[in-house]
Structures are given as C-alpha cells and as structure tokens.
Design a protein that fits this description.
Layout (H helix, E strand, L loop, with lengths): L10 H42 L6 H13 L1 H4 L3 H22 L1 H5 L4 E5 L4 H12 L3 E5 L12 E2 L13 E4 L6 H11 L4 E4 L8 H9 L4 E6 L11 E7 L3 H9 L7 E7 H26 L6 H6 L3 H14 L3 H9 L4 H20 L3 H16 L4
Parallel strand pairs: 1-2, 1-4, 2-3, 4-5, 5-6, 7-8
Antiparallel strand pairs: 6-7
Helix pairs in contact: 1-4, 2-4, 7-8, 10-12, 10-14, 14-15
C-alpha cells in the first residue's frame, strides 16, 4: 500500500464535512437572528423599567433563567456549566441593552457632576460611567490647558464659573495630589457632595475632618477595579465611612446606582489595613513573581513553551500588575501605614514553607497548606 494514500482526504468525507459546516452556519444565522430579537425585547423592557424607575437587575428572574438553562443541558448534549455560561453571557448582553436604552430617559432626571482629573484613566472611566447613569458631566484637568476653550471643560478649578451648580464633585487625581486638591475644594466650599476615590486614605483624614468641620459634605469611595473595567461586570465600591454608614451610603449610592454596583461600607480607619492585603499584598505577589523570574537564569521563551496551567495563571496576574502605572503602585505600597504588617507576614510565611522543605517536614508542610486552604475557602459571616 502506498504510504501517502492514507494521508489523502476521502472525497466523500470532505463533502460530508462541507455539508455539515454549511448546516452549522445556517443554524448560527438563525441563532444570531434570535439573539437580535432577544436584544430588541430587552431594549423594550429597558425603556419600560427606566420610565417606571424599576431596577434592571432582578435576582429572581436571573436565577430562574439560569435554572431553566441548566435543566436543558443534557438535552443539548453539553454540561450544565457550559449551558450556564452561555446564558450568563446572553443575560449580560440583555442587561447592557436594557441599561443603554434607558440612558435618554434617565438623563431627563440626571444630575450635573464635575470630575476633577477627568482626563486621567479613572477620570475617563467615571465620565463614561456617569453618562450611562444619565448625568451631565463637566471636567477639570490640566491636560485641558492646550485645548480650544469649550463649555464644561476646564484646566483649573479657578476657571469653573460656579461650583454650586454641581450636585456632586468626583475627585480622581493622583494619590500624591489628593490632599492639595481637597484643600482647594474646601476653601471654595461647594454645596454639593465631594467624593474622593483614593486607594489609600489614612493620610487624608486631617483634610477630610477639616472639610466636615467647615460644614461640607464629603465621601470617601474606593472603586475596587481599574480603568479597563467594563461597566457591565461586577463593580465593587468600598465606602470608607467616618460616622454613620447608612447615612453616608445613602449620600453616595445615588451617584453610582447601576445594575452591577456593589457598595461595601467599612470604617474609615480600617480601610487602609484592608487595602494593605487586598491591594498591597496582591500587587506585591505579582511583582515578586515577575522580579524573581528575571533572576532565574532561564529564558522567557523556554518558560512559556513548557508552562504549566498554574504558571500561566500566575503570569497573567503578574502581567496585569506589571502593565499598570508603577508610580500608582509605588504610592499604594509606600503610603499605606500598614505595609509593615503585610511585609512581615509575607516573610514569615515564606520562611515557614522554606523551613518545612529544608527540614524534610512533610507534615508541617501539609499543615501550613491546609490552614491556608481552609482560610481561603471559608465562608464570610
């Protein structure tokens, strides 16, 4: 038998595959038409909800749709996980469609906001987010100085004709500038709510106290995501409250109310300790991973070619950190008064694992990992 003949495609098989692929393409077209129709219906639902002031996300409906999808998984020949992920994506699209069509309706009742640092990454994110919520946005940023004059666009606070027309002012400036900018605002004494969004807050306590004593309304908010975050994914905001968490929550949530918003109140003086671990340690882990690998003496290409699943996951997380602004990450490390606690714990944990391995102490190694796993999987409350 000619060895090459077995490698030649069977004409009848090739024709059969072509027919099957054409059939699949036809089904795909039908699915796209149905998806288009579903989004049209979602848009109508969004208009009605916006007019009636109803919430877009209804957990009971969300749960019901996913349950129905999982029940049909076997009939479709796929796992429940696959079926759920498909319908999760469809529902995310429906929520986005509902929310977008309601922008015009919400804009009729929207408020006027000012964003300080509006040309920065997070400032631009808040601009887009606030527009989706139906608010009207003006911006202050030094980057506006060389641009042609335009209403609602200012290079400095001094150029803003009347701060009292704004119902809220969002301060999205670099950490090192936050105290200065808040001081300028306090001197101008606007009537609206001032919302600062710093990642580290302890050093702001004196200026915030000064503002409150002057009778101003201030709120300390912390978006737990970066400027690349889609507004149609889970959006966690930490509210660092100074006095009454319910009162401060009611003040700020009006400006961030959205289908995917989660607002978590924590005491102001607990915020930075929490961030020492949620940000400082998480960033440090990624930085250490990348920096240690540069000392390995191995080539990046060789590591990538032989990479394990764990290596790829950690590389992805590290690159996310290493690809961000190093000055911001330096400030998050250096300005946090609780960083020593984090560094000590990291050093002690590394030493404990190294000692267990060097002492050939398998039980101690197991015990350390077991305790860590139990902590990470423990339920809140």
């Amino acid at each position: 038998m000619n060895e090459d003949s077995s490698a030649e495609p069977n004409p009848s098989s090739a024709k059969q595959l072509t027919v099957l692929r054409e059939s699949i393409a036809e089904v795909d077209r039908s699915l796209l038409e149905l998806l288009h129709r579903r989004m049209q219906l979602a848009a109508e639902v969004g208009r009605v909800k916006a007019q009636q002031g109803q919430p877009i996300m209804v957990p009971e409906v969300h749960h019901r749709v996913l349950t129905r999808a999982r029940q049909h998984a076997d009939a479709c020949g796929v796992s429940e996980e696959v079926m759920e992920s498909i319908f999760q994506a469809v529902m995310r699209g429906s929520v986005e469609r509902q929310h977008r069509v309601g922008v015009a309706v919400r804009a009729e009742e929207g408020s006027r906001l000012l964003i300080l640092g509006g040309a920065g990454d997070m400032g631009r994110w808040f601009q887009n987010f606030a527009l989706l919520l139906g608010h009207r946005i003006d911006v202050v940023d030094p980057a506006m100085a060389p641009l042609p004059a335009m209403a609602g666009r200012y290079a400095t606070l001094d150029e803003v004709p009347d701060l009292d027309v704004y119902e809220a002012i969002i301060v999205s400036v670099p950490l090192g500038r936050m105290t200065v900018v808040l001081g300028q605002l306090i001197e101008l004494a606007p009537r609206g709510l001032i919302i600062e969004i710093s990642s580290i807050k302890d050093d702001l306590a004196p200026i915030l106290d000064q503002g409150r004593q002057a009778g101003l309304h201030l709120s300390s908010l912390h978006p737990m995501f970066g400027p690349r975050k889609s507004p149609y994914e889970s959006l966690t905001f930490v509210l660092a409250y100074a006095d009454d968490p319910q009162e401060e929550r009611s003040q700020v949530e009006e400006w961030i109310r959205h289908p995917y918003t989660h607002l978590v109140p924590v005491p102001f003086h607990h915020h930075d300790r929490l961030m020492g671990w949620l940000l400082g340690f998480a960033h440090l882990s990624g930085m250490l991973f990348g920096c240690a690998l540069t000392r390995s003496g191995l080539g990046a290409e060789e590591l990538k070619a032989c990479a394990s699943t764990t290596y790829n996951r950690q590389t992805s997380a590290a690159l996310h950190v290493l690809g961000e602004d190093p000055d911001l990450y330096f400030d998050i490390q250096s300005l946090n008064p609780h960083r020593g606690e984090v560094y000590r714990a990291a050093s002690e944990a590394l030493n404990e694992l190294v000692e267990a391995v060097e002492d050939d102490d398998r039980e101690r190694f197991r015990s350390v990992l077991s305790a860590a796993r139990n902590f990470l999987i423990s339920e809140p409350g």
